[in-house]
Predict the structure.
Amino acid sequence: MKPYKEMSKEELVSLKAELEKAFEDAKGKGLKLDMSRGKPTPAQLDMAMDIMDVLNSDSDMKTEAGIDCRNYGLMDGIPEAKQLMGEMMGVPADNVLVYGNASLSIMYDAVSRSMTHGVMGSTPWCKLDKVKFLCPVPGYDRHFKITEHFGIEMINIPMTPTGPDMDLVEKYVQEDAAVKGIWCVPKYSNPQGISYSDETVRRFANLKPAAEDFRIYWDNAYVIHHLYDDKQDEILEILSECEKAGNPDMVFEFCSTSKVSFAGGGIAAMAASKANLEFIKQSMTVQTISYDKINQLRHVRYFKNLDGMLAHMKKHAAIMRPKFEAVLEVLDKELTGLGIGEWTRPLGGYFISFDAMEGCAKAIVAKCKEAGVVLTGAGATFPYGKDPKDSNIRIAPSFPTPEEMAAATDLFVLCVKLVSVEKLLAA
Amino acid sequence: MKPYKEMSKEELVSLKAELEKAFEDAKGKGLKLDMSRGKPTPAQLDMAMDIMDVLNSDSDMKTEAGIDCRNYGLMDGIPEAKQLMGEMMGVPADNVLVYGNASLSIMYDAVSRSMTHGVMGSTPWCKLDKVKFLCPVPGYDRHFKITEHFGIEMINIPMTPTGPDMDLVEKYVQEDAAVKGIWCVPKYSNPQGISYSDETVRRFANLKPAAEDFRIYWDNAYVIHHLYDDKQDEILEILSECEKAGNPDMVFEFCSTSKVSFAGGGIAAMAASKANLEFIKQSMTVQTISYDKINQLRHVRYFKNLDGMLAHMKKHAAIMRPKFEAVLEVLDKELTGLGIGEWTRPLGGYFISFDAMEGCAKAIVAKCKEAGVVLTGAGATFPYGKDPKDSNIRIAPSFPTPEEMAAATDLFVLCVKLVSVEKLLAA
């Protein structure tokens, strides 16, 4: 089929009629599918159920060093959990704090603390006229919600195939002291599945921020979430790169087992320089006596080490891969060459990113919904929910089955075609 | 023995020599005991070990309504956990949010959120020149640390046998719009074990605060932590009292199972009016996708309801009671009539409060430490760690055995006597 833009008006009108009929047929099927959120599917959660047997009433509840996990204490995590989460991030255990069940809470906490207490002695942000964050787009809606919630001005930074546009990042960070942070998902980014190139990571590590309290918010959410055994992205380890560059304190790294063990009951961690951790612990010691060490112990005894986690993630990949491939197969077959959309082919993570023709995303999402397929709201991948081009759509293949994903994507491409034709006819 | 204050100088000098010898003997025993923190003892934790068997790899991980606790969602807690924690506090489940493992974190969060976002639409406290909290004294050091951490000015309110001095509370709350909160442990207070009288609770509920964003921070930490079956304090339920008084939004209540199941792995909750909860959820939805629902499910399936918790707490009482009685027996026997100290006789909670002669608390704690018994630092029960009279000492009997507690208290009374004699001689 030829590109839509090269079609005559008559061809488009005739195509539109055809697509409308197909859409009515599709609506009649009564689909009810949700590809809106990056939720693990029950089969993935089932794989981790042996974790529930690790501790029972006969278990020794002490850490290797003899600390009773049932009682108060060890505010910043049990040593073996620091070790495990450190291995996951590729950093020493000494640079790790282990928290409760959600890395999102740690990120919120990091921003909230900066608002009220500054960063390692800097002026609390709530005392400043203006605080800004850089937001690589498309990106993760929940990151943007945190900064929006605290009234932080967000600046869009376009993503490229190697990571955020680093010329722009350098310009903002190095020239504007109001820029205090940047949200990054450096590996298998949300939603594009892009992994930052070595050059990108090194340019991050070598930033010379105008603000002493600028930090890179490095959300390594998909650090071991590969789809393939033989094709895997790896990125440079940011803490050591920052240290090499003479910027040891410039990064906060976050990760969790939410998409390894249980999305509702995993463990989460943060990594940073010791100077950062010392400052953070001044608040932490006021905030809690300890996080749930029993769940930390459960995870450590189950996974043992990074190899244990990687072996587990291979099982996840076997579930996720067919779903991604089902989506890509339909997109490739139905949309290649039409010039009405582009999409990513991630090797890991939880999402496929789709860019429709400008001004079409909202209409496509609405059309899909009309026929029973729920997508992430158009615009959600941008700060303030506003995609300036109304183009980006995030596809989350994890929850439905491969068959459901194929059916949902069939409908999706139909909606893309129909909305694109309407757009071209209206132009 | 006659009161020390009625002794002649000669009598005191001779007594001092005798006590010094006894102290040297005691030092020689090489005691090593800690009665500094309100930590459950391993025997209490052992009693809850069956909780570890409640969920295993064969378990149905869904709530009664069919929500999978292993996955994302139900940000504010599973319904049955709201029900359980609501029963514990005596409030409807609809007024409850269930969080992670620590009520202290919920309190920190409540103050932190007020700093950055105000309370139900009020000006964020970080934008105000001055924010003040009332602090009934002696009180809980970790409460005071939270307000100190946020630069909130703390005002001491003396405790009476029926609760805080309500004349003073009313005066401050009703006249000063900078007063935004008061820290309360209304039942078996920390450290005195005092329970607020009905009149006190009603006067709280009927406050007419100058500040619209004034809240009572009602830390019901020891709500079911009785020592006796036949002698128990009960207090009025504050949410309904506030509602009756036309102040439905004036209270935040906190509780947890830290001293019911596991101090390091329980569940914690907050109760408030629906208007408060709606406002809090605006932040919560940014802060997390959900807390650990698996641990919520574990607790609900184990305890089932309030009766299950109360039955469990009877077992705790059987362990705690002899420790409290061991302390009181020594205090009664050794110090009655000497006029050098007063102490409380709580019917529940985790502490006994001791008031030494003015200017003696620090010296007593130091003496005890010299001979191997660690007490909570003198002053800790007051804001900024400053006891104006240097008189109050918190005794935490929970962790050591009854025999150890008796030995520790023997040393304690010896130190009280010695320091008191020295004080009187120096006067």
In short: The CA atoms of residues 27 and 371 of chain A lie 5 Å apart. The two ends of chain A are 21 Å apart (CA to CA). Chain A has a mean pLDDT of 97.
